[in-house]
Design brief:
This protein has 106 residues and is of the alpha+beta class. It is 22% helix and 29% strand.
Length: 106
């Protein structure tokens, strides 16, 4: 569910014909999954609310991208229930990377 949401968002907010990158890194105690888009990035004034329910950066009635504003909130709750974290880094005009960090099972 979490990867589906992150990949869907990355595709939705990427430029037409653009790339979405996925990477996985691991060590003895954690796994990190990153999903990167090369879209517009997340505006600074919205970043503190990105994981809140029913929030979207573009709240106008003519917004380009649909959705309920629940996906990231639900994804964060799922990841945290698994003992992990969901974070992001974003640069305007460059894109956004969401990182899921989960404890490794041994």
């Amino acid at each position: 569910q979490v990867l589906n949401n992150l990949l869907s968002n990355a595709a939705k907010f990427s430029k037409t014909g653009g790339n979405v990158d996925v990477s996985v890194d691991s060590d003895d105690d954690k796994v990190i999954i990153r999903v990167t888009d090369y879209g517009a990035g997340i505006p600074e004034e919205f970043r503190s609310r990105v994981f809140e329910r029913f929030t979207q950066a573009d709240t106008t009635t003519t917004r380009e991208h649909g959705g309920t504003g629940l996906g990231l909130s639900i994804s964060k709750a799922i990841v945290e229930a698994m003992g992990g974290t969901l974070e992001f880094e974003s640069e305007l005009g460059i894109g956004t990377t969401f990182s899921i960090t989960l404890p490794s099972s041994t």
